[in-house]
Amino acid sequence: MKKYLKPCVFILSLIPFLIIFYKILFNQLGPEPVKEITHHTGEWTLIFICLTLAMSPLKRLTNFFIWISFRRMLGLFIFFYATLHMLTYVIIDYRLDFESISKDILTKKFIFVGFAAWLLLVPLALTSSKKAMIFLKDKWKKLHRLIYIIAILGVLHFIWLVKKDLTEPLIYAVIVIALMLFRFKFKKI
Ligand code: HEM
Fold it and tell me: Mean pLDDT for the chain?
């Protein structure tokens, strides 16, 4: 049974991608297609951040080690959705106009923190393999604590980009803070 759980989590994690792929293929994106892709991928990046952070608390609460075995895969899905999100902005929205993109990064604080979060995800994705884990030893754990900074930057990015209703980003803020408090209360896991 256990050996089927990981492939199931993998397939479930691909569903948001398949949904947006279907919408692109069958012209179902609505009046603002770029916005729709950006929102979908951004939102799922944040959901995967919360899911990844939730694995240790779930292990602690249920005493099932299986949650920890999903963590690496879910972490890689953060990078997958964040990269799709960033590429939507860089390739589809700005058509590789690096001058305007640099200007945006330097003048819009929500783009600055979003970009910083994506950059911090790169070393985590590059060192996600078991080999890297063995090679880096204690440093691996320290490096992968960057996920907490990434989570904070991701939430700030959402708070700063929203113009009117702050409800949704604030819900994510509460979830991230709760998961971080749990982590600091039970430091060993
Ligand atoms: C960990 C990294 C990131 C996370 C968690 C994240 C998350 C989000 C979320 C949740 C949204 C709002 C979705 C909605 O409206 O429902 C969003 C929108 C957006 N993000 Fe990101 N993002 C990240 C990185 C980036 C990067 C690297 C860029 C570009 C350089 C970027 C550019 C944008 C833009 C342009 C929007 C739409 C703004 C608007 O509606 O006016 N994000 N992001």
Answer: 95
Crossing angle between the packed helical segments 109-126 and 66-87, to the nearest 10 degrees = 130
Q: Which two tokens stand for residue 110?
A: 């929500």
> Cα(129)–Cα(134) distance, rounded to whole angstroms?
9
Q: Is the CB of 115 under 6 A from ligand 1?
A: yes
Does the reported pTM lie above 0.90? yes
Nearest CA to ligand 1 atom 27: 115
Distance, CA of 74 to CA of 80 (rounded, Å): 10
Q: What is the pLDDT of residue 55?
A: 96
